[in-house]
Amino acid sequence: MKLTHSFAPLLLAPLACAISSVALAGDSGYAPMPPAPPVQTQEFIVRVGGSYMSPRNDKVSFVDETFQYFDAFRATVDPDDEWGWLINVEWKPVDHWGFELGYVNGETHSGGDADGYLSLVLDGERFGDVARFEADVSTASLKFYPLDPSCMVQPYVGGGISYTDFNGTNFRGATRANLESLGLRGEFDIGYSWGYTWQAGVDFNFGHDSSWLVNVAAVYARSVTDMRFRVFDDVPPPAGEDAFFDSYSGDYIYDPWMFNLSVGYKFSF
Q1: Per residue in 95-140, pLDDT tens?
Q2: What is this structure's pTM?
Q3: Domain ranges of the chain
Q4: Which of 170, 169, 163, 220 is nearest to 197 (CA)?
Q5: Cβ-contact 164, 136 below 8 angstroms
Q6: Was domain 42-268 assigned CATH 2.40.160.20?
Q7: CA dist., res. 48 & res. 46, Å (int)
Q8: Do residues 133 and 108 touch, judged by C-beta distance below 8 A?
Q9: Helices then strands (H, E): number in the chain?
Q10: Sorted alphabetically, which keywords does the UniProt record give (predicted)?
């Protein structure tokens, strides 16, 4: 009697499986297939708009490149804030993560003050805004979106690398005039800079089924470059006289904040 009770569950188990299979079977007698998982799409976003660029105020110590004066003079480089335009392209291979390539084309900055500039050479001439230059910033960033993709408001944070290219560099007219009054001419140059970048922003989607969005973002780019200039005779001196030539350089920390406002369009494959 005890042996029969012990084997009863083992004998009933196949019967229970058979009954459950018949109950789950459809009209054809086969169990229905489970629904297919949703297909993961790769999303792309293109944004175009304006960027308000606010560079850093930096005190630069210039060094005579002949190494006669290791701290020849100091200048405050304080460029004006300027507007530029931006474009960025983002690839979102999975939910919550995106990879963005961005570019900001800045307008011409001007600003700086170099009191006592080259006092040994220029007799204490005062220069106001000494130079003009343009700065273009390119970034590559990994971005994280914390909210569910179905939300119409999508905040994000991101970080990566930046490249700043300086161009359109020259002395301002007042500076050139002061040099010319002393029979001199100058050349001003800023190179380029690799650094890091980080950003925070929000995409505001027009609707769940809309491909359009509005974006606001704050982007920081680390940028340190070598600011250099040369001063030399405007007209070569007569034979037998020494030509005047001086070259100076100093590390300038540009470090712009960029406040972006743009319109975006998203699409999938």
Answers
A1: 999 999 999 998 888 766 555 454 444 554 444 556 778 899 999 9
A2: 0.74
A3: 42-268
A4: 220
A5: yes
A6: yes
A7: 7
A8: yes
A9: 3, 13
A10: Signal
